[in-house]
Amino acid sequence: MSRALIERYRHQILFGPITRTLVSLGAPLTLSALGRNLLYLVDGIWLSRLRASYISIPWIYHVYSNLFMCILLLFTVPAQAIISQYIGRGDRESAGRAISFYLTTAILIGLALLVLLIGIAPLFLLYVVSVPRELYQQTLIYTTILALGIPMATLNRMLMVSLYSMGDTRTPAYLATLAAVYNMVLDPILMFGFTVYIPTISWPIPLSPSKIITLKAPALGVVGAALACIISDAIVLAHTVPIALYGFKWLNVKLSLRMVLQSKDLFIKTLKVGSMPSISFAASSLALVIFTRLIAQVGGVTALTAFRVSMYIAYFIDALIVGFNSAIVAMVGQNLGAKNIDRAEKTVWSALLLLTILAIVIAVPFYIFSSNYIEFFGISRELGEEGVVVTRTLLALTPIILATRIFVAVSTAIGRGSGHTRIPSILSMMRVWSWNIASSILIPTLQTVSALWYSMAIGNSILAIAAVVWISKGSWKKPIV
Predict the structure, then answer these.
(1) Which residues, at least 6 apart from 283, have a Cβ–Cβ distance to it below 8 Å?
(2) Helix, strand or coil for residue 197?
(3) What are φ and ψ of residue 2, in 5° steps?
(4) Nearest 5°: CA angle at 154, between 153 and 157?
(5) How far apart, in whole angstroms, are the C-alpha atoms of residue 290 and residue 287?
């Protein structure tokens, strides 16, 4: 990205209309995240054609891998705040040095996570997550294959963070959409196999139907779904690296282990800003492991499948959070760096209002048409009436669960943009723990898996109120650079 383009984004963030700037910066990443999340939905649709219960396999991998992604988060959160504030201040040299530091670190973290995730997967999935026996083997295979792509994922993630911290949300949007398209194309081909007919030509004899070579690729099932993710990520990374190298050229960005070892000041600042979000994320991920274990133990495959089907709706809200939170991070960070405190505060309240309305508008139709939605995934066919009832109960609560989630998500973006991450990290950490606490009270009382769903609604609502209180107090308005 050229210096002139960065300056244009900076001017828009510091002086443009707030709501229009939010939409302008947030919409591209929202659309790309939506494309990526639609990929997960499509992936689930294809997996449900193998078995309805297989749609919970990607979720189990997500729960497992996220527990260790706190290591990466220790660096991505400070990168967002530090890079955006250096850009807002116009300090090109410091911004380039920070980007170099974080990109090199991301590669090292990816290699370490690759070894860790593959090494402990068998015991972790079976005894910690308590994956049902009928899903264990396929889940282990899926997890092992996706773990091989972790180094690509960590590098790509840090590249995206660097780009949108500078105000460029369009390039990451384009690249994420590209990954989704590749994955959607590869999924059915690798999962269900394909046949190719190649005609041969015997010159000068005309082509004969008997002279046709048939090539058949095997149906790989769950293995194919995992391979589609790995291949598409590799292709997109091949696009991302040249774009980033060209865009960062004027900032003198380079990968250097020596520079990382010599950047004591950046490392200390990273620990100061990133430790709390990282610990919070680890604690939240551990809570999610416990909650997933509860679902598996209380309701088995039926409850896991119902949870996954219902939470597909959350992908639409996640797209809003990913897109607009990136915009909030850039706008809050750069406006605080430029001492535009009032503008930073107006940005926050405008974003909260806009996102809450959008979340409700998205979630309600899924409840209205819940019968059709449940039938589409074949729940009644494989899991019977019990599966339908469990899924419909969660769908009824989903609008409340997702709308209240917005408040904690926005507080997290404020923390990352301002560098004041302690309170948002605590709120984020407590979101899933509140589910477990409420579940421990409701399960003995209700003695049904629905107690888990009510716990989610209650926990999210309490923390939404806490987030509003923290935002209103305004302790996040002090810049850190």
Answers:
(1) 429, 433
(2) strand
(3) -75, 160
(4) 85
(5) 5
Pairwise CA distance, residues 112 & 382, whole Å: 40
- Rounded to whole angstroms, the Cα distance separating 321 from 403 reads 11
pLDDT digits (tens, 9 = 90+) for 120-144: 999 999 888 888 888 899 999 999 9
In 3D space, the residue among 237, 263, 276 whose CA is nearest the CA of residue 99 turns out to be 263
Residue 129 CA: distances (Å) to CA of 115, 141, 335, 383, 436: 19, 16, 43, 21, 15
Rounded distance between C-alpha atoms, residue 176 and residue 172, angstroms:
6
Give the dihedral of Cα atoms 101, 105, 106, 109; nearest 10 deg.
-170
CA dihedral (139, 141, 147, 153) positive or negative: negative
Core vs surface per residue 185-208: b (16+ CB within 10 A) or e: ebbbebbbeeeeeeeeeeeeeeee
The phi, psi pair for 206, rounded to 5°, reads -60, 155
Q: Are 382 and 291 in contact (CB under 8 A)?
A: no
pLDDT tens, residue by residue, 224-272 = 999 998 998 888 888 888 877 776 776 777 777 877 787 788 888 888 8
How far is it, in rounded angstroms, from Cα 105 to Cα 267? 10
DSSP per residue, 220-246: -THHHHHHHHHHHHHHHHHHHHHHHHH
Report how far residue 446's alpha carbon sits from residue 101's, in angstroms, rounded to the nearest whole number: 52
Contact by Cβ (8 Å): 81, 269: no
Tokens 């926990």 belong to 459
| Burial class (CB within 10 angstroms; exposed 0-12, middle 13-18, buried 19+) of 175 | buried
Question: What is the value of pTM for the model shown?
Answer: 0.74
Residue with tokens 């149906």: 219
Residue 69 and residue 106 in contact, taking contact as beta carbons nearer than 8 Å: no
